[in-house]
Amino acid sequence: MVIKFIKKKFYLYFVIVLFIASLNLVILNQNLNIAEQQTMIKTSTVIPHTDEWLVNTGFDESIDPWFYSIEGDSSDVTATFSPGQANLGITGDQGYFSEISGTPTSDYWLNVTNPAFPALPDFHGIDEYGCEVNHTWIDPDDPIQSPSIHWERNITMPVDMSDYVITSASISAVFNATVTTTSANFAFGVDAPNDTVTNPGDYDSARFYVLISDLEDNEKYEVAWYQSIDLGQDSDPEISNILDSFMNTVVEEALIFYLTSLFERDNHHFKVTLGIRIKCVDNFNFDRDRWDSLRIKSCNLSFSYVKKINQFTSVSWNQIGNDISGENKQITGAKLKFTYKIDQKWPTDLSPNSELQILLNNNSHEETLKLNLVPTSFQEAKQGGFNVTKLILKNVNIGLSIKVYLADEFSLNRSIVISIDDVSLVISYIEIRSDIFGEPEIFRLLAIIAVIAGGIVATYFVLYQRIFKYPLPVRKVRKYKKTLRTANPPKKHITSNKDAFNKLYKKELSKSAKYTKTKPASQTIGISKQSDKIHKSLDTKKSTNINNTGGLDQK
Q1: What is the C-alpha radius of gyration for the chain, rounded to an integer number of angstroms?
Q2: Is the dihedral of CA 440, 446, 448, 451 positive or negative?
């Protein structure tokens, strides 16, 4: 009994150890597969894809999901939409200033003192003929030898002049003058260099001028002037007046420079000043200088300005599409197509380097389109499209930008619009899908099958040692014998020979009943009695054998 129990435990332990070893083999193999998954060769399926990556490629009814972006000066460019096209505009403009024109009037010109020479003349004012001054200086009691007067006008420009370039400018001013040269007393009059005076060296003079400045007078330029030299000459010839005459002016380049400098200080404002200053020199004892009329009759200041386009300004239409993500996807090709046009010929002489650029995820395509080559009607930007495969990135949303890039600083007096339509970005890629039974999966499946097979073999081995190596009748007897060792009655029932014989006999009889006729009752009874005798004899023999052996130890 002890030996059998030990064998039984040995078989059980053997099965457990075999199962655990097989399970560890599966786990180890799985870990190795995970660690080496990147380097293992797998069988796979390649699925090709060719997809349009953009939506609303024709700008049919709305601009969504397109959006624009501007870099640089936003006043230089625009982005607009009209059904069927998206527009990229360069904002040109021009203007002409001519508010300072004709005879000054008190409605616009304000009388102020000259801060450098604050003393005022005897009379100053504005009438229908312009700005006028008269003054008489009497020596020695009159302290006002250098009177002066200003008329100012502040100007507000309609645009921000920092965005414009002054292309032309002009200034003109007309003045006249009348003075007393001499009288009965030769000392009473305006003295000129050719006059005979007691104190020569410097002489009487009048200065007419036009100033431009910022509103605070921090920066000031004289752009027109006239200073008398021989006005008041007594003889050879006598010069007692100057008829309407133009002042001297700066050259156009200087005037443009001065105006530009003022607009750099203040983009919208500047000031124009008309001025007259008198200088009375003491050429005689008891000298008397009489300025009968000094007048600025008119002033004209005008200039033209054109919109300045700043260098490196750009405007673009953009769309951000989906991404291509996953290690199992490989981009094989990408092609961009679109049509474009320009509404007028591009000014190549002003900006020869400006161009249309293509960007994908902010990376520029190597091919650009010069704006001077853009057609005036819709045409394909490039026959067959642009190969942009190298610019397509994985694992990020794919963004497209079509940009007008202004590579030069130039002036543009009109707006120009470049339009795009039928924008298409077709991307081709392959998707590699590993088969469900790749190399690591096959090994794993084989390991599982091996574990199951090992368990089955071990189970069969144990069952064979304990059960299946005995014939069926012996197995039944051994099973019945085990039930006798328990305190409870046997659960297994052994059929007697008599019952087994009757059962088989009836079975055979039922099979042949339809072929045999019914026997006489005497014959049937005789057979039955003979059968009973045989069974009794067998039972007696069986009982005798049991008593002699003391059990069922023999087969």
Answers
A1: 60
A2: negative
Is the Cβ–Cβ distance between 130 and 298 less than 8 Å? yes
DSSP-assigned beta bridge partners for residue 295:
132, 176
pTM: 0.67
Written as tens digits, the pLDDT of the chain (555 aa) is 444 444 555 555 555 655 666 555 555 555 555 555 555 555 668 889 899 999 999 998 889 999 999 999 999 999 999 999 999 999 999 999 999 999 999 999 999 999 999 999 999 999 999 999 999 998 888 889 999 999 999 999 999 999 999 999 999 999 999 999 875 556 678 988 888 888 887 889 999 999 999 999 999 999 999 999 999 888 889 899 999 999 999 999 999 999 999 999 999 999 999 999 999 988 777 888 899 999 999 999 999 999 999 999 999 999 999 998 888 888 999 999 999 999 999 999 999 999 999 999 999 999 999 999 999 999 999 999 999 999 999 899 999 999 999 999 999 999 999 999 999 999 999 988 776 555 556 667 777 888 788 778 877 777 777 777 777 777 777 776 766 666 666 555 666 777 778 878 887 787 776 665 555 444 444 445 555 554 555 455 444 444 444 443 433
Question: Residues in the chain, how many?
Answer: 555
What token pair was written down for 440? 């690591």
Same domain, 484 and 512: yes
User: Do 400 and 342 share a structural domain?
Assistant: yes
Helix crossing, 497-512 with 521-549: angle to 10°? Answer: 150
Q: How many CB atoms lie within 10 A of CB 281?
A: 21
User: What values do phi and psi take at 440, rounded to 5?
Assistant: -65, -35
Burial (CB count <10 Å: 0-12, 13-18, 19+), residue 93:
middle
Burial 353-389 (b: 16+ CB within 10 A, else e): ebbbbbbbeeeeeeeebebbebeeeeeebeeebbebe
Q: Domain check: are 375 and 428 in the same one?
A: yes
- Tell me: do 383 and 460 sit in the same domain: no
The answer to whether the CB of 389 falls within 8 A of the CB of 331 is yes
Residues 164 and 303 in one domain: yes
How many domains does the chain divide into?
Answer: 3
- Per the structure block, which two tokens stand in for 470? 């005995």
Q: Are 204 and 232 within 8 A, CB to CB? A: yes
Of the candidates 206, 157, 158, 160, the residue with the CA atom closest to the CA atom of residue 180: 206
Peptide bond connecting 237 to the previous residue in cis, omega within 30 degrees of 0: yes
Longest dimension (CA), the chain: 204
Residues 147, 280: one domain? yes
**Cα dihedral across residues 213, 217, 223, 228: positive or negative:** positive
Distance CA 254, CA 249 (A): 10
Return the DSSP state at 86.
E
Which range marks the domain in which residue 235 is found?
103-309
3-class secondary structure for 113-140? CECCECCCCCEEEEECCEEEEEEEEECC
Measure the CA dihedral 39/41/46/52, to 10°: 0
